[in-house]
Amino acid sequence: MPAFTYDRTVDSNVRKILEKINIRGELKKNEPMSSHTTFKTGGPAEFFFIPRSLEDLKAILYFCKEYGVPYFILGGGANILVSDRGINGIVIDMRHFNRIGFRDTICYAESGASISRTAEQAGRKGFSGFEFIYAMPGTVGGAIWMNARCYGSSLSDILYSVDYLDENLSLKKLTRKMILETSGYKKSVFQTSNSIILKGEFLLKTGEKGEIADRMETYKKDRERKGHFLFPSAGSIFKNNREFGEPTGAIIDSLGLRGRSIGGAQIAPFHGNIIINTGTATSRNIRDLIEICKQEAKLKRGILLEREVQYVGTWQ
Ligand SMILES: Cc1cc2nc3c(=O)[nH]c(=O)nc-3n(C[C@H](O)[C@H](O)[C@H](O)COP(=O)(O)OP(=O)(O)OC[C@H]3O[C@@H](n4cnc5c(N)ncnc54)[C@H](O)[C@@H]3O)c2cc1C
Q1: Which domains can be identified in the chain, with CATH numbers?
Q2: In the chain, which stretches have pLDDT less than 50?
Q3: Is the distance from the beta carbon of residue 138 to the nearest atom of ligand 1 less than 6 Å?
Q4: Which atom of ligand 1 is nearest to the CA of 191?
Q5: What pLDDT, on the 0 to 100 scale, is given for residue 67?
Q6: Ligand 1, residues 34, 79, 91: which to mutate, most atoms within 8 A of Cβ?
Q7: How many Cα atoms are found within 13 Å in the side-chain-facing hemisphere of 162?
Q8: How many Å lie between the centroid of ligand 1 and the Cα of residue 280?
Q9: pLDDT value at position 12?
């Protein structure tokens, strides 16, 4: 039997026990999640842990399982909307798992590495295949989890294998064959499990460095031109769906919602499928706008929009 079961009123016990289990990573209490999300919104994480090693990571996960403490794995915070009330339990930030390396035409990157930096390093070595994702915010882990997609390619197109910890904290490998069998449009097998992604391997081709750099620059410029970096956001709110016959942004435009504001949140004047924080948005403001888009699309167009951005934390 565990020495105690998790309860918000006894959270000081969490710290005491964590001190005993000999972890080296940094532990913070009441860490504002607005500092860790690209929306720049979100209340405090009750505990925020940055493991330094696999041992650290496993120790904290064993602890969470033993005491029933909820945990959330954080990548770059580029596809999440964290409640203003914050997150109960422990947020685990993977930033120190950030090594990137190469073996023949395979690039391997740990889950906390920036996906854009990984693409950039591959390009610098003269490896092609990663250009499409350059300048997209977030980590390798988050991009594998989301099976991120841009400019007509999905990460699963180049993903060769994934090392992960399964729900029992055993080390496992997802092979290329399994990736092909389980991936879909913005869908990965990790979305239906509690596994922790540790490392991805990507199968690339040799290419001409100058041409690769030019392609990456073109993608980056296109994002800049589309206003991706003008305001805090999480990129597209909803998935696109070929069956709708038009992009989700166009559907939201057709509902007359582009530019609509609630508090400091606004449906971007430059793109119907992006919600921006104009400076003072709360997560509630953003969520209310998301729900308006969903309701109106259903009511006026009979379309069921599927949210891409993940709601995280304690919502009423
Ligand atoms: C300006 C802008 C442009 C964008 N453009 C695109 C685009 O073109 N295409 C696109 O697909 N997305 C886009 N996005 C969304 C976002 O960049 C991607 O979804 C990205 O892959 C999210 O990665 P992250 O590390 O930030 O994940 P987070 O937001 O931190 O997490 C997302 C989910 O992944 C899980 N997760 C993260 N790391 C791990 C791990 N190691 N193990 C297990 N689970 C993990 C989290 O628990 C969470 O459920 C854009 C976002 C912004 C802000």
Answers
A1: 8-93 (3.30.43.10), 100-225 (3.30.465.10), 242-312 (3.90.78.10)
A2: 1-10
A3: yes
A4: 49
A5: 87
A6: 79
A7: 29
A8: 23
A9: 57
- 130-155 burial string, b = 16+ CB within 10 Å, else e? bbbbbbbbbbbbbbbbbbbbbeeebb
Looking only at the bridges linking them, the beta strands covering 87-93 and 71-74 are parallel
Q: Is the CB of 228 under 6 A from ligand 1?
A: yes
Which residue shows structure tokens 């016990």?
13
Per-chain mean pLDDT for the chain: 94
**Residue 293 pLDDT:** 98
Write the DSSP string, the chain: --SS---GGGHHHHHHHHHHTT--SEEEEEEEGGGSSTT----EEEEEEE-SSHHHHHHHHHHHHHHT--EEEESSSSSEEE-TT-EEEEEEE-TT---EEEETTEEEEETTSBHHHHHHHHHHTTEES-GGGTT--SBHHHHHHHT-EETTEEGGGTEEEEEEE-TT--EEEE-HHHHHHH-BTTB-GGGGS--EEEEEEEE-EE--HHHHHHHHHHHHHHHHHTTTTTS---SBSB---GGGSS-HHHHHHHTT-TT-EETTEEE-TT-TTBEEE-SS--HHHHHHHHHHHHHHHHHHH-----B-SEEES---
Measured in residues, the chain has a length of: 316
The pTM (predicted TM-score) of the whole model is: 0.95
